[in-house]
Amino acid sequence: MALISLRQMLDHAAEHGYGVPAYNVNNMEQMRAIMEAADESDSPVIVQASAGARKYAGAPFLRHLILAAVEEFPHIPVVMHQDHGASPAVCQRSIQLGFTSVMMDGSLGEDMKTPMSYDYNAGVTRKVVDMAHSCGVSVEGELGCLGSLETGMAGEEDGSGAEGKLSHDQLLTDPEEAAQFVRDTKVDALAIAIGTSHGAYKFTRPPTGDILAIQRIKEIHTRIPDTHLVMHGSSSVPQDWLAIINSYGGDMGETYGVPVEEIQEGIKHGVRKVNIDTDLRMASTGAVRKFLAENPKEFDPRKWLKVTTVAMKGICKARYEAFGTAGNASKIKALSLEAMVKRYESGELDPRVN
Ligand code: 13P
Question: What's the pTM value of the predicted model, to 2 decimals?
Fold first, then answer.
């Protein structure tokens, strides 16, 4: 069974200069779309359970959905990742359930709303790192808060996210603080804030450097070149799906996401994990709206669920190809979590940050 740790997958991605989309999963259709696209393009997979998905489907259901995919596609390495853990207890529960990677988001408090101090964030993240690494499980931390550089407003994530107005400093991760954080916590991957936010309404115009700070990724990567960077809120908000949604009864308004070319620029500068949720939601919603409008007599949910799978699969495959993920699944030799424990114990995976 090819369930592997995030650290192993991202080390491979760094060595070969590619990025891996991390897709949120809530149901079977999403899972199938992600896996079929990965199968056709020979791509390694990261699937993640957000706080919203855990509330919607429940962690045990999500876990079995992912395990079913691993069973059906045993040749594809899969990372089972828990997105935005609010506390060490939440992460511990996920480790117990068999997740191979967890995110401890100590940038916010346990209410998943209040921005917290550096010391709080580093303290809880380090606690999770100690616990997770002793099980061979990887940890993603977050420094800085997601939100809009256009408005200064915090970004609401799927079940997590600060509220209200944030300072420019809170919305952009500081490279020196990032180095300190990686040293203090020993995280395997670091989510950074560069002006992206979760959801479809990221930018009111196609983003330029003042509202999407790709330059900041370059500065952070220069300071901590060995740390795997994570971009949250990285949906591109496909304009073709937006048009389909609106022409079949939707009302989404003008909005823009993170262009694929900007993500590719990030991948050249240390971004290894690219979180995507909204793009699959939009493809799925557009496909079902169109199908039901064109087939008003249809009442079998499998018919419209099938078209949502095909639509989501198209997005997944395009991202695997654009991020250089394609062609790499067969090159990864799966390491067990026991093997990862030994690697952590030997110190070979300690961060190299001065
Ligand atoms: P999007 O809303 O841009 O897809 O972001 C998803 C995400 O960051 C999940 O953690």
Answer: 0.97
